[in-house]
């Protein structure tokens, strides 16, 4: 019997495919992974602690930096939680604007995922195609709120800026354009035998495991669990729109891919409906006091971010600053299953599986 | 002694260097075009001097050798990889008159000399004392050994048809019969796939899988040593494109009687077609996984190559087809 030795390989925090500053300590035998341990915290900024010294409005830009690929949903989480605790009713127009930007942001986030996940398995071109299309969304956001990544767009009680003239028409055009492109990408990718070989049956997670690890978002839905907070615990005005919750069956990488691709289509459908029903005129901010003093109490809201259930838990002691703030950051929870998924896999699958989970390190580290 | 014996190889070296320079630019332009970009445009008109600038940058870079590397092997590896890459070009006939060594076993020479590069790559990976390099080196050794076999077996069909290992003779056989891409189509497909794997190009670029192994076997190399590895890769593209032109596309033979176009131009056209095909693949294909690659080589390509040999042998005996085989 040939004596073989295990080798410890340090992947990251500077590595092309760890999507930021994730570090993985991997024990490999040949190219087969025996053990993998994620080491996180390289991007920890202590958002939750910092928030205790900030007023509610001041917290919003900090949330932009958590999941920097979909800052709009983060904005919404903190605003929605505060509004719920204060009992503020949001004007109709503001709700529509919020839904439109959140869904567009979901599309943008999934496009980044699509590009980078395919880049991880070696396909270079989809990355550039996806970023081209994401750029169009960022341009729309830029026009709306003057920022491309960290929007700081929502406020407690509404949104900061109204839609510029002609903006909604541009959104409509974009939805048309994106639908065409999605068909094109689907054809390009699904027709590729190597892609199918690399994703089918890789990184299978059963729905029991997924639930016990507390996975959410596409990571949970690809295992066959139909759970989408927009549908099952409707918040904002999501109950007014018709959309499907795509689910997978096997829970492998391929199902994750299919789920996210369909989610883009569903998000586009929501945007389309929201633009159709968009109210004429009206305020974009509710009447809120200048200094937000949140009544004593606690609140937890969970919303569906592109990565899963984004929760915001506020404990208030009646001051203008939260006594304690806690975010349930979906990337952090989704990452915890990685060691289980990687055991016994080839090293080439490491980056594919990691890419499939779709983490954002800003959110993992908080 | 003829002056050309000395001058010829020197000119060839510069030609190959020129090819490598502009192949890289061409690759970046092609991929840029496919990916909605423009590619290099800044250095020189249409970015023509971009690669020149890049090479100059590499040459004046600090030469870093990791402290714990095996210094001797570390220095030897790029040289060992490059020498065979240039040596194989010696047997390639570009036209009836432009050729260097017209040896009887040209094809065998090409196949055997090109295998030496693996040792350079493996040594480079080993001597760097870096785990990523080691994995990359091991992968490339495994890959190149697996693909060498279907590659060699797939050309057996051509050898049987042409009745010679001499590359000029192989072209002559195609001038009288048909280009071997038609009668040897199965062999051509196997050869094409195996040659891409031999060249470590997408979708078989596992040894330098950027997203997994950082840069594979040349992770620790900088400056001109790194440039040597790159040069090896592109010189092999030159060699392989020439070989595939000669073996399957009729070499300098003009199709449809278009003999007013000089044979060298025909050679360059066919050659460029293969080079473009490689770059096209790079922009469109994801990377295959190691075990799938092995399975594909041993269970897919190898039986096909052997089947091709049988097929050729049988069809050669069929009277009305024997002209083409």
Summarize the structure.
The complex is a heterodimer of chains A (366) and B (325). Chain A is an alpha+beta fold.
Q: What class, by secondary structure content of chain A? A: alpha+beta
How many domains make up the coordinates of chain B? 1
Mind telling me the CATH superfamily name of chain A?
A: Cytochrome-c3 Hydrogenase, chain B
Which assembly state applies to the chains in this document?
heterodimer
Count of individual helical segments of chain A: 15
Query: Largest sheet of chain A at a glance?
Result: 3 strands, antiparallel
Reported by name, the CATH topology of chain A is Cytochrome-c3 Hydrogenase, chain B
How would you sum up the global shape of chain A? globular
Task: Quickly list its features.
heterodimer; A: 366 residues; Cytochrome-c3 Hydrogenase, chain B; 8 strands; globular; B: 325 residues; mainly alpha; 12 helices; transmembrane (chain B)
Describe this structure in words.
- The complex is a heterodimer of chains A (366) and B (325).
- Chain A has 366 residues and is an alpha+beta fold.
- Chain A has a single domain, classed as Cytochrome-c3 Hydrogenase, chain B (Orthogonal Bundle).
- Chain A is built from 15 helices and 8 strands.
- In chain A, a hairpin with a 2-residue loop joins strand 4 and strand 5.
- The longest helix of chain A has 29 residues, at 92-120.
- Chain A is globular, with a radius of gyration of 21 Å.
- The model of chain A has no long low-confidence stretch (mean pLDDT 88).
- Chain B has 12 helices and no strands.
- Chain B has helices at 3-34, 50-59, 71-87, 106-114, 116-127, 131-162, 167-176, 185-198, 210-213, 223-248, 263-284, 290-317.
- In chain B, 66% of the residues lie in helices and 0% in strands.
- Chain B has one domain (61-324).
- In chain B, helix 6 packs parallel to helix 12 (290-317) and helix 8 (185-198) packs antiparallel against helix 12.
- With 325 residues, chain B is mainly α.
